[in-house]
């Protein structure tokens, strides 16, 4: 049975709660990987994996452990690309599917926006996590679990 891997360093609390409830309901292993302690309930299905402090330490741990068919939940595009290359499924905490067909364009746009910000351009950041984002994420996660759990 595939596992769910969560890039927990930047996972919104509400998304974390959705993942925990879904893992319990479907008896699916969910691994929250971060370089800090993530508050999680005691559960046979929900596990925290704390990694050393360091640039991309959590990402490296996820890439090392993720298996083909597992699901990664992240908004980190380079991490998403590495997981896709390992045949994992990827979705953002807003429920957007990332795959081999769209990841390169997303990474290129991210790099372009980084270049713009470095040149002094104010590009703004992502919008706040809305009720609509929460619903889209919960629905996308439920669909994946229904097919894979």
UniProtKB/TrEMBL annotation:
CDD domains: PIN_YqxD-like. InterPro entries: UPF0178. It comes from the Bacteria. HAMAP family: UPF0178. Belongs to the UPF0178 family. This is UPF0178 protein GRB96_05205.
């Amino acid at each position: 049975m595939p596992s769910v891997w969560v890039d927990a360093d930047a996972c919104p609390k509400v998304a974390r709660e959705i993942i925990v409830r879904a893992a319990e309901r479907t008896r699916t292993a969910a691994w929250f990987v971060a370089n800090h302690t993530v508050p999680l309930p005691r559960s046979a299905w929900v596990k925290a994996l704390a990694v050393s402090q360091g640039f991309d330490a959590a990402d490296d741990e996820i890439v090392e452990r993720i298996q083909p068919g597992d699901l990664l939940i992240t908004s980190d595009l380079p991490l998403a690309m590495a997981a896709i290359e390992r045949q994992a499924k990827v979705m953002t905490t807003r429920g957007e599917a990332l795959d081999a067909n769209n990841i390169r364009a997303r990474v290129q746009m991210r790099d372009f926006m980084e270049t713009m910000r470095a040149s002094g351009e104010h590009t703004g950041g992502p919008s706040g996590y809305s009720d609509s984002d929460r619903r889209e994420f919960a629905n996308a996660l439920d669909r994946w679990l229904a097919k894979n759990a």
